[in-house]
Amino acid sequence: MTTRKILVTSALPYANGSIHLGHLVEYIQTDIWVRFQKMQGNEAHYVCADDTHGTPIMLRAEKEGITSEQLIARVWQEHYDDFSEFHVDFDHYGSTNSNETRVSAETIYRTLRDKNLIEVRSIEQYYDPVKNMFLPDRFIKGECPKCGAKDQYGDNCEVCGAAYAPTELIAPYSAVSGAKPELRNSDHYFFKLSADSCQQFLRNWTRSGTLQTEAANKMQEWLGAEGENKLSDWDISRDAPYFGFEIPDAPGKYFYVWLDAPVGYMGSFKQLCNKTGLNFDEYWLPQSQPESVMDARRQGSGDADIPLGRQGAADAADNADAPSVTATELYHFIGKDILYFHALFWPAMLEHAGYRTPTKLFAHGFLTVNGEKMSKSRGTFITARSYIDHIKNTEYLRYYYASKLNGTMEDLDLSLDDFVTKVNSDLIGKYINIASRCAGFIAKRFEGKLGNTDTAACAEFQEAFTGGEIARCYENRDFSRALREIMRLADVANQYIAEKKPWELAKQEGKDAELLEVCSTALTLFRDLTRYLKPVLPKLAAQVETFLNIPPMTWNEKWVALSSGHVINTYQHLATRLDPKLVEAMVAANQESLPASPASGQGVAAQSEQRHAVHQQHTASIEVAQAEKDFEPFISIEDFAKVDLRVAKIVNAEQVEGAAKLLKLTLDIGEGNSRTVFAGIKSAYDPENLKGRLTVMVANLAPRKMKFGLSEGMVLAASGEASGLFILSPDDGATPGMRIK
Question: CA separation (Å) from 246 to 58, 302, 609?
Answer without folding.
Answer: 15, 18, 45
